[in-house]
């Protein structure tokens, strides 16, 4: 008998649209599809780290309990303008709680994991496979102009979605034979553009929409270059990048997208569905 293929998850960037990952993953887990390795970019790195650390259920509860007060604590800081609007420290403190990632190191997680960040000056993706898990996630979510960049080993690191928004190649590099990728950069329902006589968008809104434009473009390019075995694309184009409360509607969209991909999953993972 041939050895069971090693399954890899490649979880994509997309801010609050990334809550769709939760619906996808919950559905896959219910079918008995669990990863052997996990790679993620930006919000995908955050959720991927939870899977690799065995903290997925705890994180689901945190997302369900997320309220405006908690969200405001993450994204409102009194600080002088420096490298970004936000330091990211409140997010790191949240993720570093013992019930989530705690002080776990990437190389010691139960599952092989890579967070993908972007080297700002070399203009290339960087796989982060060592060091504190919260630090790897922090680098991967560093939206330029919004969060401070992360300095690591002589590199200036920012959001992984800028160069590898759906890190299929990273999952392969971790040893995956079968890669299931989730792309939440759905472009079917873009936000309406303001009329010419309306107030222009704020600096934050402009930065976020620019990031979204880059991620949309790069997801098309990178998925052509590194094709997954199964690509799941939740229809979450109407979810705004920082709407982490309203964006929880994306969870069901993720579950729907996973169910729509069941036939494709059966083709590449017959041993799972034949049990």
Provide a quick synopsis of the model.
With 275 residues, the protein is an alpha/beta fold.
Write up this protein.
This protein has 275 residues and is α/β, with parallel strands linked by helices. The protein is built from eleven helices and eight strands. Strands 1, 2, 3, 4, 5, 6, 7 and 8 form an eight-stranded mixed sheet that branches. Strand 5 and strand 6 (155-158) form a beta hairpin. Helix 1 (20-30) crosses helix 9 and helix 2 (43-52) runs antiparallel to helix 6. The longest helix has 23 residues, at 203-225. It is globular and about 55 Å long.
Tell me the span between the first and last alpha carbons.
16 Å
Q: Which class best fits the helix and strand makeup?
A: alpha/beta
Low-confidence stretches: none
C-alpha geometry: globular
Quaternary state reads single chain
Radius of gyration: 18 Å
Count every helix, treating DSSP H or I runs of 4 or more residues as helices: 11
Order of helices and strands: EHEHHHHEEHEEHEHEHHH
Mean pLDDT: 89
- Percent strand equals 5-15%
Number of strands: 8
Bin the helical content.
Answer: 25-40%
The largest β sheet comes out as:
8 strands, mixed
């Amino acid at each position: 008998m041939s050895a069971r293929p090693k399954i890899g998850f490649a979880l994509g960037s997309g801010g609050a649209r990334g809550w769709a990952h939760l619906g996808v993953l919950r559905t896959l887990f219910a079918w008995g599809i669990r990863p052997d390795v996990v790679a993620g970019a930006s919000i995908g790195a955050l959720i991927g780290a939870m899977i690799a650390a065995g903290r997925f259920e705890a994180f689901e509860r945190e997302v369900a309990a997320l309220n405006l007060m908690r969200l405001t604590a993450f994204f409102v800081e009194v600080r002088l303008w420096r490298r970004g609007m936000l330091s990211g420290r409140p997010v790191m403190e949240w993720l570093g709680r013992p019930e989530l990632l705690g002080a776990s190191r990437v190389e010691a997680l139960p599952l092989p994991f890579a967070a993908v960040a972007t080297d700002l000056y070399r203009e290339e993706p960087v796989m982060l496979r060592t060091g504190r898990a919260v630090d790897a996630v922090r680098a991967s979510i560093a939206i330029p102009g919004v969060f401070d960049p992360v300095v690591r080993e002589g590199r200036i690191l920012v959001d992984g979605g800028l160069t590898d928004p759906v890190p299929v190649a990273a999952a392969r590099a971790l040893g995956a034979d079968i890669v299931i990728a989730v792309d939440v950069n759905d472009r079917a329902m873009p936000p309406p553009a303001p009329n010419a006589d309306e107030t222009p968008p704020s600096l934050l809104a402009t930065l976020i929409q620019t990031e979204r434009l880059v991620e949309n473009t790069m997801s098309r390019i990178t998925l052509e270059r590194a094709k997954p075995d199964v690509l799941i694309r939740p229809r979450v184009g109407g979810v705004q990048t920082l709407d982490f409360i309203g964006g929880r509607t994306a969870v069901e969209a993720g579950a729907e997208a996973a169910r729509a991909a069941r036939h494709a999953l059966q083709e590449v993972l017959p041993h799972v569905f034949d049990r």
